[in-house]
Fold this sequence. Notes:
This protein has helices at about 10-20, 35-55, 55-65, 80-90, 105-120, 120-140, 145-155, 200-210, 215-220; strands spanning about 65, 75, 165-170, 175-180, 235-240. The protein is mainly alpha-helical and about 250 residues long. It folds into two domains: about 10-155, Orthogonal Bundle (Butyryl-Coa Dehydrogenase, subunit A, domain 1), CATH 1.10.540; about 165-240, no CATH class. The strands form two sheets. Strands 3-4-5 form a three-stranded antiparallel beta sheet, with no helix packed on it. A hairpin with a 5-residue loop joins strand 1 (about 65) and strand 2 (about 75). Helix 2 runs parallel beside helix 5 and helix 6 (about 120-140) runs antiparallel to helix 7 (about 145-155). The protein starts with 7 loop residues before the first helix and ends in a 7-residue tail after the last strand. Mean pLDDT is about 80; it is low at about 175-180, about 190-200 and about 225-245.
Amino acid sequence: MPSYKAPVEDYLFLLNDVFQVGGYVDLPGYSDLSPQILEATLTEAAKLCEHVLTPLNRVGDVEGCTRHDDGSVTTPKGFKEAYQQFCDGGWGSISFPSEFGGQGLPAVLSGVVTEFLAGSNLAFWMYPGLTQGAVAALLDHGSPEQKATYLPNMIASKWTGCSCTLIVKSYPGRPVLLGYYKGKHDHEIHTDNLKFVHISQEVRTEVRGLLEMGVERSKIVRNIKLSLTSANSLPVAGSVEFQNQK
């Protein structure tokens, strides 16, 4: 049986004695992070991770997820109940803005809790972990309407985020990026589930050179022109003119 012991005492020492987070009360969220709240939060997070999530590692390895003919997926036994405990405890809302239902506490606290969650059961953490990234993207780039529509339920962990794939490729000697986007999630399981955008070393070198020349990041990004050519998600190409950027 897998075992996991959350390093609660280590983090209390680091946060209270080394980093002295109690001295940052003038920063957003820190005024509410008293030593009592800090200790109580990490203690309860440790209980969830040690007693609920860790035992599910073996269950997940043996059973795995089941994909049904209608496209739905059933998680291994215990995962659904564990996720409900995660939701009820508000563990996905620690550092998100209170205006959307978050707790508004510092990211340093949610970062520690994230280590506990990922360390105890990485397979489980991938579910709320993707949501964290989607919420962050909406907070930075979403319209007011999108934020109002999605953030409350995502921060409450009622809705989850997913990985959407954009594969980008370039060829040596050509300042052109070729992108492929699938607008419909119709591929076979384990196919196209890439989490990272792949860019060749040549393009990375070109981009690095532009940055060193002082070209604004926004101008570089704007030159990546990718657009869907049809509803069937055919391969699409977008050009990036790297030369003579001003």
